[in-house]
Amino acid sequence: MKILLLLLAAAGLCWGQYNPNTVPKRTSIVHLFEWRWQDIAEECERYLAPNGFGGVQVSPPNENLVITSPNRPWWERYQPISYKICSRSGNEEQFKDMVKRCNNVGVRIYVDAVVNHMCGAAGGSGTHSTCGSYFNAGNRDFPAVPYSGWDFNDGKCHTGSGEIESYNDIYQVRDCRLSSLLDLALEKDYVRSTIAEYMNRLIDMGVAGFRIDAAKHMWPGDIRAFLDKLHDLNTQWFSEGTKPFIYQEVIDLGGEPIKGSEYFGNGRVTEFKYGAKLGTVIRKWNGEKMAYLKNWGEGWGFVPSDRALVFVDNHDNQRGHGAGGASILTFWDARLYKMAVGFMLAHPYGVTRVMSSFRWPRYFENGKDVNDWVGPPSNPDGSTKSVTINPDTTCGNDWVCEHRWRQIRNMVIFRNVVDGEPFSNWWDNGSNQVAFGRGNKGFIIFNNDDWNMNVYVQTGLPAGTYCDVISGQKENNKCTGKQVFVSGDGMANFQINTDAEDPFIAIHVDAKL
Ligand code: AAO
User: Which of 179, 317, 353 to mutate to test the pocket of ligand 1 (most atoms within 8 A of CB)?
Assistant: First the structure.
């Protein structure tokens, strides 16, 4: 008995924070990439809360280098100059207002924490930063933090160039520069404390957790050291003793010595195999079929479900940065993309993140998008354009708002309805027609074959007439889409033509007529 209690106490002391701290029955995160704080605050109130979104991943809020060649790329926000809350998304007052208003309607805010490095070595010197703070990249001088030469890893990296030259050397990956970005010396208590102080300011404002950018480029123990210094969440919105949600960006597609599992002690990790494999399957590349998805999850060599943060695409691999390759599905391939996001949201594996993008003038030369750098929709003075809402609820000003697409939004709701229910009633035709349920709460069926589908399958659902939430939804007890009739034994007939606009159907108990 004593030993059991000791073990339980030890588990309780274990720092890792795997829970997204969402309100009950809200299960998904949306990444509102490059959105302004004011727009996010409004989106929480007018759309995310009413539609059951759990939280928002926001772009890095701290001061960054202003890059004019190319002209204000989205990636300048991954080059910190200081930890002042001051970026193209807004100032500190606007950030605080957003966190408060989102929390007040039960939508959490997760900050993208860029703490592995500062700006690039060739960032120059001056005040060309989003808040006008002076810095000198050449001298490693960032007085607005302050950091100086002592706080960087220059002496520790052993490659000739000072850059990561091989991902097969775990020391280079952690101690050298990623794409020339000045690498912070995270073994120093001063650096750890400075980072923790930045994160604590955000926690005190009401932030619910963090994406740890470039976590693979930091030693797991160094991350642990600054996480250990973090406050519990603000008790205005969270119960006492709640730790921030942590998900670490570790790209592990296999084939490199650094494994995602090394980071489990700190929190969840981004499972990049998920989107890369799902894209391959839905595109039917390499002989893959949806029937093989029967054991999706750990069965495919992914990290354990309770350690995974998953997504179909992210802000990097939707434009050829980072990892995942050509198989990654994005809004540019809308029909297949909706199927992939639908599959992800219906499947119990992992904490799910939905991408919400801006449109850019994608243009391929020799297989590479030469406009992969283009920043958010912006005005001539460089300020980010607001997100306008069209009468049909879609977004204007080149904001794509995938999270507002009916099929995706309704699957976010589906995931909430089936939360906690087991994966059940798998069916497949040995090819690309598959279906599965979530206990007796929801059911989804796909036809990704080149022929029509007409089948009777077991749904596990109570008898009744259900409204398909892909082709429409239940409104005032009427269905604006297809109807599905489930008989007393749980069986139902599904017909999906190969040329259907969206070749999948999803039903759940809250969409029963
Ligand atoms: C920009 C310029 C650079 C310039 C620099 C400094 O583009 O030319 O040197 O400024 O002036 C973003 C942009 C960068 C940008 C940076 C700073 O993506 O282009 O640099 O802001 O402005 C690695 C990291 C991963 C990182 C990813 C992009 O491990 O952490 O690269 N993602 C995060 C953010 C990202 C951000 C940063 C980090 C930096 O999400 O937005 O960068 O804060 C392999 C490795 C991966 C590695 C990739 C790419 O992947 O495994 O760890 O990701 O290479 O280098 C197959 C393999 C797969 C492999 C992949 C690509 O898929 O299976 O393992 O090929 O080779």
Answer: 179
**CB–CB of 388/382 below 8 Å?**
no
Closest CA to 376 of 357, 401, 393: 357
pLDDT in tens, 265-320: 999 999 999 999 999 999 999 999 999 999 999 999 999 999 999 999 999 999 99
323 lines ligand 1 (CB under 6 A): yes
List residues with catalytic annotation: 213, 249
Ligand 1, atom nearest to 78 Cα: 43
47-104 residue pLDDT tens: 999 999 999 999 999 999 999 999 999 999 999 999 999 999 999 999 999 999 999 9
Identify the weakest region by mean pLDDT among 11-20, 325-334, 468-477.
11-20
In a 3-state reduction of DSSP, which class is residue 174? helix
CA dihedral 404, 409, 412, 417 (to 10 degrees): 140
What pLDDT does 16 receive? 52
Probe residue for ligand 1, chosen from 66, 75, 76, 327 as the CB with the greatest number of ligand atoms within 8 Å? 75
Question: Model confidence at 8, in pLDDT bands (50, 70, 90)?
Answer: very low
Q: Is 167 in the pocket of ligand 1 (CB under 6 A)?
A: yes
Ligand 1 atom nearest residue 324's Cα: 62
Q: Report the separation in Å between the CA atom of 316 and the middle of ligand 1, taken as the mean of its atom positions.
A: 8
